[in-house]
Amino acid sequence: MSAPRIVLFGPMGIGKTTALRTLCGDDLVDCEVANLDTARHAKATTTVGADFGVLRLDGGEELHLYGSPGQARFGFMRHWLLSLALGALVLTDVGQDTSLDDTEALLREVSEHAPGAVAVVLVARPATVPEIQGFARALAERLGGAVPVLAVDVRERAQLIDALALLVALLPETLE
Amino acid sequence: MPTFITPPDKTVLKIGSDDLPEAELTRFTVLFQVAQTRGAVAWTQVPPAEAEVVVSHGVPWRATQAVNLCIDPRVSCAAELNVIPLESGFRVATLIEALDRASAGVLQRRGQSLAGAAVGYRLRHWVVLGPDQQSANHARVMAAMSRRNVTREWMATGAGLGAAQIEGLLSELRAHGALCESRPDGGARREPDDNGGPRVLLNRPGFVGRLRHWFAGASATDNSLGAQR
């Protein structure tokens, strides 16, 4: 049986690979190649395929973590990753003009391709509390319901663990 | 005799303190004047035999179905005795905490929520809570409220929030315009408890619980994954 998985989505350069590396350390396979799309983002490398990391739980169970490419053309990859996902972390930078549109689109993808899966939005770039509150309110208005929005530093493992704990708290008790 | 304040819209619980020795009764009476204004419920004084919460010195004065606030307990306070310990020389903060615990116990028995039966609360939108409301229990309540209606009773018994914490959280959410309340008897539509779940978990009984346990431990200690790799 495939291990349950959590996926990390977000635009190019937001920090998905860094987050996975922070969480999984050496238990990570990344697919970074030289970034040829420097017009979109100046970073040196970018992900093709999918990053993959493992959290090993007590008792030998595993939770698989996948980071999907941020570009729209990799939508097929996200859909495949969602096929066995119990939840998604959607990373965003609320300071970007497109953050609301991008996040809404990704959350709708999650809802469409993984019915019942849960999602938490991670504000992965510095933002003020009022900015985050405003983003959360606007997102809820668009989606017709509250979505958890949490500020994190993707280099801080404790913050990512808190985010995963919140994601797991969203899972229905009835599944247990 | 303490003066009892009964604010509107608060559930009233019966408390009896007449069996206390005079010195302790005086201290209790003075501090109770303050403590009773801080909780989510209101109190009315009744004889101990009729009380839902009995304030006693030492071991409970008799076998009782009431919750006992036990001042200066000389025996270990077993849960089956419905005893909540209160140290001798208690201060108002500890009295507030003890009254919160006592009220939660009584309300659990009554099978009702802290303020009105089955009022459900749900989030309109997410709110970044202040530092004093960033506990795991608060997060659990917020997570639940983002997906379904949650009662005060569930917040207390399902998520472990105290009565004062529940009041504080709901006040904060109201202040942000983020709280949606539904009263089944008022004709509000009931929300489904859950919307199903990821198919992948269906063959893994208890997996969510194990995940929660693991993340709670990892969060508390930030133990390196390297130790488990």
Describe this structure in words.
The complex is a heterodimer of chains A (176) and B (229). In chain A, 47% of the residues are buried. Chain A is globular and about 40 Å long. Chain A is 35% helix and 24% strand. In chain A, helix 3 crosses helix 4. Chain A has a single domain, classed as Rossmann fold (3-Layer(aba) Sandwich). The mean pLDDT of chain A is 85. By secondary structure, chain A is of the alpha/beta class. With 229 residues, chain B is an alpha/beta fold. Chain B has 2 domains: 99 residues, Response regulator (Rossmann fold), CATH 3.40.50; 72 residues. In chain B, the strands form 2 sheets. Chain B has a 5-stranded parallel β-sheet with strand order 2-1-3-4-5, with helices on one face. A two-stranded antiparallel sheet of chain B has the order 6-7. In chain B, helix 1 links the parallel strand 1 and strand 2. Chain B starts with 11 loop residues before the first strand and ends in an 8-residue tail after the last helix.
> What is the name of the CATH topology of chain A?
Rossmann fold
The named CATH superfamily of the largest domain in chain B: Response regulator
Overall strand count of chain A = 9
Element order, helices and strands of chain B?
EHEEEEHEHHHEH
Q: Under the CATH scheme, which architecture of chain A would be assigned?
A: 3-Layer(aba) Sandwich
First-residue to last-residue Cα separation of chain A: 17 Å
Per CATH, which architecture of the largest domain in chain B? 3-Layer(aba) Sandwich
Specify Rg of chain B, calculated over alpha carbons.
20 Å
* Number of β-strand runs of chain B: 7
Number of domains of chain B: 2
Number of helices of chain A: 5
Mean pLDDT of chain A: 85
Give the overall shape of chain B, derived from the CA principal axes: elongated
Give me the Rg of chain A, rounded: 15 Å
* Number of spatially distinct domains of chain A: 1
Report the biggest beta sheet of chain B as strand number plus sense, adding barrel if it closes: 5 strands, parallel
Percentage of residues in DSSP E strands of chain A:
15-25%
Low-confidence stretches of chain A: none
